[in-house]
Amino acid sequence: MKVSEILFWLLLIMEGETSWISHYIDDMSKDIGDFDSFSELSDEGNKEATTISVDLILPDDLLERILAYLPIASIFRAGSVCKRWHEIVSSKRFLWNFSHVLSQKPWYFMFTSSDEPVGYAYDPILRKWYSIELPCIQTPNWFIASSCGLVCFMDNDSRSELHICNPITKNCKKLEEPPGLKFSDYSALAIAVNRTSHNYTVSIVKSKQVPGNFFQWDLSIHIYDSETMMWATSLTEVLTGWRGGDESVICDGVLYFLIYSTGGGAPENRHGLVTYNLSSRASPLIRSFIPVPGPLTCGRLMNLKEKLVMVGGIGKQDRPDIIKGIGIWVLNGRNWVEVARMPHKFFQGFGELDDVFASSGTDNLIYIQSYGAPALLVFDMNQKLWKWSLKCPVSKKFPLQLFTGFCFEPRLEIAP
């Protein structure tokens, strides 16, 4: 068989439809008959050559390696080509091959309702939106964190109901209720998955105002270890002039979270960053305080290849609550290095309030989404390139409708 014929089939697979009806997992469970082989023209006399089946040419191990390098949506389509391909992409050996392929580019799930956890997932490789259903989550305002194919959901009411799931395979696990305050004023959720062992760590930073004292806030850090399947409260401390918030991330064994000024002591900036080593678990936290790079209206933290990256709204000098731009920084030691600033032509659609966008990323991609519109901006850290995604197949139904979302790495072999 010619290489061009193999590529022909792979290209057909990658074309696909623009929506992911129900879920590709459901399609893979069906038994599908062998596809018709095709014929080629011989080089001599344009005579039709003998029909050759792809099944007879490619051994399983070679076909597995080829399919493992396809985008994940195309892998599901490949499972629908024929019974043999379905068995291959469903096998444990294929999952092992897939796990050794370079990371898939992260997808972005955009919620399209304020009440129901429904929406579309954007695939940056094929530049398509897929309609998929998220398991476990009940409303879009739940806390969400992701790492290496797993997504952690925590309810926004009691903040004690947590689920870990793979949104591609829909494998889910409910965690035990975490310790500490059940109804904290602020909570920040993070998860980190070990790519080798697939064990994971979940952290929750809880913050609650000390009764009768607006400037003092109780702060506690709670850690879940999937290996022991147990929670531990690793730190409790009282902050003066600062409180916790809802932004945190784990990078290379270190928990980072933003704290916010409560007005006492007139700090230089409204935000600060705290680092907490999950191995040594040293305290007090004030020793690990890192100032943010100038006045920010808001900050979004993310892990890109075990480096801490922050996307922040840049505030005006005279009006720090008014956003004038959006910047991207990488933390190098204790110093921030600016990577990029959003060009004005992209920033124009982001409004002038202090909290006007959602942002998350992994690998080399950063997604930025305005709360006020279903538009998604993508920044490539390697190419330093800004571009809009294809338009999400949803329209704004009323002026005050809000949109948000999160990114996750699509993986087949990771299970909670």
What is the strand and helix layout of this fold?
Layout: H1 3-15, H2 24-28, H3 54-57, H4 60-68, H5 72-78, H6 83-89, H7 92-99, E1 107-111, E2 119-123, E3 128-131, E4 143-147, E5 150-154, E6 162-165, E7 172-174, E8 186-193, E9 200-210, E10 213-225, E11 230-240, E12 242-251, E13 254-261, E14 271-277, E15 289-291, E16 296-304, E17 307-315, E18 323-332, E19 335-341, H8 344-347, E20 357-362, E21 365-370, E22 376-380, E23 385-388, E24 404-408
Antiparallel strand pairs: 1-2, 1-24, 2-3, 4-5, 5-6, 6-7, 8-9, 9-10, 10-11, 12-13, 13-14, 14-15, 16-17, 17-18, 18-19, 20-21, 21-22, 22-23
Helix pairs in contact: 1-5
Features of this protein?
24 strands; 14% helix; 39% strand; mainly beta; 4-stranded antiparallel β-sheet; 416 residues; globular; 8 helices; disordered N terminus
Contiguous helical run count: 8
Stretches where pLDDT is under 50 for at least 5 consecutive residues are: 1-6, 18-51
Strand tally is: 24
Helix content: 10-25%
Mean pLDDT: 82
Radius of gyration: 24 Å
- From the spread of the alpha carbons, the general shape counts as globular
In terms of DSSP E residues, the strand content is 35-45%
Computed structural class: mainly beta
Q: Please give the largest β-sheet.
A: 4 strands, antiparallel
Distance between the termini: 41 Å
Strand order of the largest sheet: 3-2-1-24
Question: What features would you describe in this structure?
Answer:
The protein has 416 residues and is mostly beta strands. It is built from eight helices and 24 strands. The strands form six sheets. A four-stranded antiparallel β-sheet has the order 3-2-1-24, with no helix packed on it. It has a four-stranded antiparallel β-sheet with strand order 4-5-6-7, with no helix packed on it. It has a four-stranded antiparallel β-sheet with strand order 8-9-10-11, with no helix packed on it. The longest helix is centred in the N-terminal third of the chain and has 13 residues, at 3-15. The relative contact order is 0.12. The model is unreliable at 1-6 and 18-51 (pLDDT under 50).
